[in-house]
Structures are given as structure tokens and as C-alpha cells.
Amino acid sequence: MTREEFDRQFLKDGVEHLAGVDEAGRGPLAGPVFAAAVILPPGFYMEEINDSKALTEKKREALFPLIKEQALAYSIASVDEVTIDEINILNATMLAMKKAIEGLSVKPDMILIDGNISRNLPEPNLCVKKGDSLSQSIAAASILAKVARDHYCKEVMAPKFPQYEFEKHKGYGSGRHCELIRSLGPCPAHRKTFLTKILAKGSEL
């Protein structure tokens, strides 16, 4: 079954507009969590659209404008690191998804959510485990969320805090990033609740 065929099984019984929703950036030590919601035209299929983690950065960058051009509607939203520290990453992720869904210019009749949690999200929705590899709509959302977050890291965070090299690791906990945190201390872009173990392994800051 192709990812388009997976989506097509939901386009019945009054469902005309199917939205796929996914997030990017739950795991990084710094920066916002992003989410995207995408409604693709019925019958649209592009084989290259896949789980963003299965694609190269070059391929994601190429698909990013194509998805936005072809979509009936799309929306990208984020929740910043301060809020992540305040409400935890799961609640922040749900909030980013909710904002993305509510930002769609076309109201979806059904929403497919990547993963197994849809707390406080608009109805009707269905959680799809590993949905970014099964559903074309969710895969498209995963690409928009990932690329948008990468752009934010390179264009906003990196120039503001150049010493942390956010353009390279995008906030993820690479060895180099952890080394920089220990030597320089956290910056305002860091998620303070994510750094306890890393700082404990380094010198007192």
C-alpha cells in the first residue's frame, strides 16, 4: 500500500479534507518544538514524500516548497523553549500541533496524528503509530516541520548565539554541543529542564 492509498481509505463517508499532522524537535536540547498540518488534494501522490527522518537534508529542502505549492492548505507552528520548560515537552508538542491545525485555512474533516497521543487536539482525529512512514499527509507534515525548524536553527538561533554552532547540530545533543554547553554554560535558547544530566557531568557552572 502506498502512502497515498493509506490516506485514501479515510476519504469516505463525508471526509473530503484529510489533514496530516507531525512534529519536529521533541528531543533537542535547545530551541522550539515545531509542528505542521497539511491537507493534500485528493488523488495527489508524490513517491518522494516520506518520513523526514528517512530523507537527506537536500531532499527535504527540495520537497519543502513543492509540498507548500501543492497542498490545499498547510500550517506550521512552534512552541518556544521557555514554554517547553514551563509545561514539559509533551504538552508543548500537543500545543504546537493544536496551533498548526487551527492555523489551516481549510477546515479538516479528519485529522491523522503521528504517534499515539492526541491530547487536547481538535476532533475528529486518529493517532497513527509510525504514521510518517505510512501516510502521505503525515509524511508531508513531517517534512514541513523538520525543514522549518532547521531553518529557524540556522537563521535565528545560530546568528544570535554563534558560539554554540546551532547551524551544525540544530540543537540536538551531539558530543560537540554537549561539550559547548559544559564549557560555556547554557544560553537563553537552551531548554533548561533538558540539561540537568549534561551539566552534572561537567564542571560547576
Task: Describe what you observe in this structure.
- The protein is α/β, with parallel strands linked by helices and 205 residues long.
- The chain has a single domain, classed as 2-Layer Sandwich (Nucleotidyltransferase, domain 5).
- The chain is 44% helix and 15% strand.
- It has 9 helices and 5 strands, in the order αββαβααββααααα.
- It has a 5-stranded mixed sheet with strand order 3-2-1-4-5, with helices on both faces.
- Helix 2 packs across helix 6.
- It is elongated, with a radius of gyration of 18 Å.
- The model has no long low-confidence stretch (mean pLDDT 94).
What is the strand content?
Answer: 5-15%
What is the class in the CATH system?
Alpha Beta
Distance between the terminal alpha carbons, to the nearest Å? Answer: 53 Å
Largest sheet: 5 strands, mixed
Q: List low-confidence stretches.
A: none
Shape: elongated
Q: How are the strands of the largest sheet arranged?
A: 3-2-1-4-5
Q: Can you give the mean pLDDT?
A: 94
Give the helix/strand class: alpha/beta
Compute the number of strand runs. 5
Element-level helix/strand string: HEEHEHHEEHHHHH
- The gyration radius over C-alpha positions equals 18 Å
Total number of helical segments? Answer: 9
Query: What is the CATH homologous superfamily assignment?
Result: Ribonuclease H-like superfamily/Ribonuclease H
Task: Give me the CATH architecture, please.
Answer: 2-Layer Sandwich
Q: Per CATH, what is the topology? A: Nucleotidyltransferase, domain 5
What is the domain tally? 1
Helix content bin: 40-55%
Briefly say what this structure is.
By secondary structure, the protein is α/β, with parallel strands linked by helices. The protein has 9 helices and 5 strands, in the order αββαβααββααααα.
